Amino acid sequence: MTVALVTGAGRGIGAATAKRLASDGAAVAVIDLREADTAETVDAINGAGGRAIGIGCDVAVTDQVEAAFERTLAELGGLDILVNNAGVIRDNMLFKMTDDDWDTVMGVHLRGAFLCSRAAQRTMVAQRSGKIVNLSSTSALGNRGQANYAAAKAGIQGFTRTLALELSPFGINVNSISPGFIITPMIEETARRMGVPLDVFVKGAAEALPIRRVGTPEDIAGVVSFLVGPDASYITGQNIYVDGGYR
Ligand code: CAA
């Protein structure tokens, strides 16, 4: 059975991705900061007849990442797909951004993707196959109030291209997806912080997009499913914007 590990899979894009990969036939390790945060996703997958385990893990902490991969190998019997999705925002204008705002965002996105990918490649290189999908963002192109997040998400694209150079010879495809405005708890949090009702925030975003609607977590999960599937076997080192034409 194909085994996938998805970080930040307690909610939002990670949860939709874990469920989609499970419905595609994979056993899924659902990773989030606390094991309790994974319960909803794990129950949904197991309740639908799939196979999932929940693991609490801070992706920025080496020992916790190593332990999460060990548990996945021991309990699900392998590792074929890694989705580096875990992410946080600490939006603020540069002059008000704290050291902690910067370090937290870099830690989860870049250190997290690094630690998880380094752990995953051990198994994938040995078996000469694997798929790694990293979540970047349209914010990589620059977004006011997100110096930390934009830098991290642009970093993810360079990280992806470099891993593709190093790992593709071993049968491992490495790609990234850059979502635009996707309805997730992150967007709800942003609307709340800005004091704008969510429906007004979403309507404004939809009207500004060529496609005239905002995205759903399932819009992204479908592209992950494609990238880890057989139809994408000749795609590596790419970044795909899934953003309704945002740019
Ligand atoms: N030094 C001193 N003052 C400065 C300055 C500087 N370097 N730069 C700006 N200022 C001043 C401005 O002149 C302005 O002053 P006034 O209020 O007197 O006019 C003030 O600082 C800035 O005021 P703003 O009201 O513009 O800014 P704010 O601090 O209240 O908030 C913001 C700005 C953080 C960008 C906020 O608007 C925000 O959070 N926006 C949303 C950001 C966003 O898009 N986040 C996406 C989240 S979802 C996601 O990330 C998912 C994904 O992948 C796409």
UniProtKB/TrEMBL annotation:
UniProt superkingdom: Bacteria
Cited Gene3D superfamilies: NAD(P)-binding Rossmann-like Domain
Ranges where the Ketoreductase domain occurs: 2-180
The UniProt record lists the keyword Oxidoreductase: yes
Claim: Ribonucleoprotein is one of the keywords in the record: no
GO molecular function: oxidoreductase activity
Keywords: NADP, Oxidoreductase
GO BP, one annotated term: monocarboxylic acid metabolic process
Similarity section: Belongs to the short-chain dehydrogenases/reductases (SDR) family.
NCBIfam families xref list: PRK12826.1-2
The protein's name: 3-oxoacyl-ACP reductase
Protein source organism: Rhizocola hellebori
Highest classification ranks of the organism: Bacteria, Bacillati, Actinomycetota, Actinomycetes, Micromonosporales
